[in-house]
Each structure stands twice: as C-alpha cells, then as structure tokens.
Amino acid sequence: VHPSYVGEITRYGTGYISIDSLVAYTTMLALQGETSRPAVQSSQHQNQVAVHLPRKFCRRSIVALAGRQSDVASEAIVSSTDAHAARTAREIYQVSEAACCSTSTSATQGVVGVDPTVLAAVAGLGLTLFALKRVLDSPSRKYDNNVGKEYDAWTEEGVLEYYWGEHIHLGYYSDEELARGYLKKDFKQAKYDFVDEMLKFSGAQNPKKILDVGCGFGGTSRHLAKKFKNASVTGITLSPKQVERGTELAKQQEVDNVKFQVMDALAMEFPDDTFDLVWACESGEHMPDKKKYVEEMTRVLKPGGTLVIACWCQREETAAAPFSTKDKEDLQFLYDEWAHPYFISIQEFERLMKGTGKLQDVKTDNWNRNTLASWRHSIWVGVFDPWIVVFKGPRIWYKTVREIVTLERMHQAFANGLMEYGMMAGTKALQSAKPADTATEACEPATVGA
C-alpha cells in the first residue's frame, strides 16, 4: 500500500481518507470478519468521504491487506456499490500487491497479524544499528601531526591509565599462561612482563644511559630505572601531559634516576653517541618517517650500544601476496582511528636498520602469539570494572565504545596475519661501515625491487 495511505490511516483513528484507496479493502476486510463495514459519510471535499474505523483496525489494516489473496480483493470489489471506486480499487490493489507481496505468498503471510508498532520498532532498531555501525566504521583521529594532542587527551581523561596502568603497550603472555586462559593473568602485570621479555630480547647488559623513545606515562622508563639503579634514564614524548604525569609518578615512587622531556623523536636534541640503550616500544607506529626514526635513534646510540624496537607492523606485501581491497580498507581504518600515518613490515624495519650502515647483528621476530591476548583482555577488564567510564558521562561513553571497536579490529588484524607484532634489535658497530659499503647496502632493496 502506498506509504501516504498508511500514514493517514495510522495517524488518525478517524479522518478524511481518499475513497479510492479505502473503500475496496475495508469492504474486503469486513467480508473476512476483520471489522464491520466502514461507516461512510459525504464530504464537501471532492472524491472524499469521512470513514470511521476502530483504532484496532487502523493498526492492523496494512498488514492484513498484505496477506490477502487476490480473489479476496476481487470479492470485495464486486461487493462495492460504487463501480468507479471498484475499478480504481482493483488498480490500487494490483499495484499494492506487486509492491508488497512480490516475494512469495508465504513471506507475506508471515507478517499477518503482527502489530505494525512491533515492525516499526524492529525496523527502527535495525536502522539505528546500521547508522551506528557506519559511524564506528568511519575513523575519527586521522594522523595530522596530532599525536601529542591525542595523548594529552587520553592522559587527562584518566581512563587509559586506569585500565592499562603505567604502560601504554601490549602485554606478554607465556605459552603456559595462554594454556591456562589469558583472563587468569593480571592485565597490568602482563605489561611489566613484556618489558622484561623485551629487555631479554635486546641482549643489553647493564646499560648506564638509557633513552626511552615515546615513553608514554613513563612506566617503562621507571621500571628500567628501578632495575638499573646506577643508570640514568630519559623518556621523551610529544605529549606535555604525559611528561607531567610521568614526573609526578616518579616522585610518588621515589625514582630519582629518571626524567622526562617533550621532544620530537625525528629531531632529537641529544649529541651523537649518547646512550648505551635506546628503547622504542610502540612509538614507531606514529612516526611519519620510519627511516628518519631509525636513523635518529642510531645516531644517539653509543658504539657498542643496543637499539631495540617493538612496533605494530603490517605484513610484508609481495607480488605473490598483494594486499586485497579489504586488506587496504582495514589498514586504512587502523591508520586513521589512532593517528597512525602508516605501518611498515618487520622486513622493512630490518632493511632500514641495516641500511644505516652502523648497526650490526640485526635480528627480528614476530611476537603475535604472545601479545595477541592483550587486545581482548583490555576489553574484558573494562567489562569487569566499567564504573570509571560510567561516571565520566556520555562523551567518554561514546569514545570508549569507539576504542572497544578499534581494539577488536586490531585483534582481528593481528589474528588473521594482516598485522604482525615486530621485534627488532641491533648493536651499533664500534666502527661505522665505510661509505661505499653503506651506499651499496642501502641500494640493495631498490635493486631487488626494480
């Protein structure tokens, strides 16, 4: 039935309705015992009548009509005393039947007797969920030199620190812990365990000067400062709020061999050959120039010192295994939701490190298996303890829902191999490679690609 008719019928219990659209099917329903014949009164309006119908009929007329067979409609039309109305009604019914009942008889009969209010509520819910999905599938924090600003906001809100603790990075889950069930492990402890495992991977031995590139709240910086009490630790970040919070926590914990500074990792103010250990945990994702990122960290590293990097990486794209359209869409969402300019592969990190001509014994690994649980574990800790979010109000509710969606999409990307958890480490040579050697090695990837 044309929507304008339905709107009029359901809007008014009693009202002026077009006679052509009403007489035939109300008579039809009367023959079927749905209601009494409509009471018709004349009107000064041309070709209109006042039709008085029970409110129950107004609610049910549209679905009842959709479920009737054409022979019923014919009977109703024959019973009509107005030949013109009958002809018009037949045409209207045929159009209605084609529009509403073209799928199958059983399909139309399935809605007979269903209250339109219920159908409308279901449809409304469906549209709401569809609209919400469209919103959540549209990234909201595209990279625009806004990393410091985003981390300032996360720091001030306090939600991230409440759930993730002092460490804004994934946790580490041993094979035994995974076998027992990752939810049995303390989520924040998993972060400390990650730092210890990353230190083992680096191979660094008793460093005296440590640089934490992209230090966040300074959890790793303080942990390393406590572990190496005779060392001096410096953490750098683009977020003034993180520097403030990291310094505050260091004072509370009485860690006096650590300090924090606002500094761009791509243009560090430190002299060459300053640090024994350069530590970069999940900061490379935000770097708009990965090559410069590796080169700057190598520059400030002392000869014989260690560079260790942990970074979310996309898998290596090759001619044999190109990214599909969906892969590219998924990656773009991950770039644009958490202010990432782009990701690179573990293999590309290895090429960049070797390409400096200054790093030797470069090694890499993929820690997907032992970090994957973090994504969903971080969701569950919020489910178990939602109150900080509840009391923050609607803006944080909405933002938290977005974070949950992104955490799940990160989990899926890592689980299906589109993303990999890259671990890279190397030692700065006591004597840099000759310029000719460096140039040759740096050109090798381009030569292969050509």
From TrEMBL:
Source organism per UniProt: Volvox reticuliferus
Residue ranges of every copy of the Methyltransferase domain listed in the record: 210-305
UniProt-annotated stretches for the region SAM motif II: 273-281
GO biological process: alkaloid metabolic process; methylation
Ranges for region SAM motif III: 300-309
Keywords: Alkaloid metabolism, Methyltransferase, S-adenosyl-L-methionine, Transferase
Annotated family: Belongs to the class I-like SAM-binding methyltransferase superfamily. gTMT family.
Segments of this protein annotated with the region SAM motif I: 210-219
Pathway: Alkaloid biosynthesis
Database matches in CDD domains: AdoMet_MTases
Domain of life assignment: Eukaryota
Gene Ontology molecular-function annotations: methyltransferase activity
Protein name (record): Methyltransferase domain-containing protein
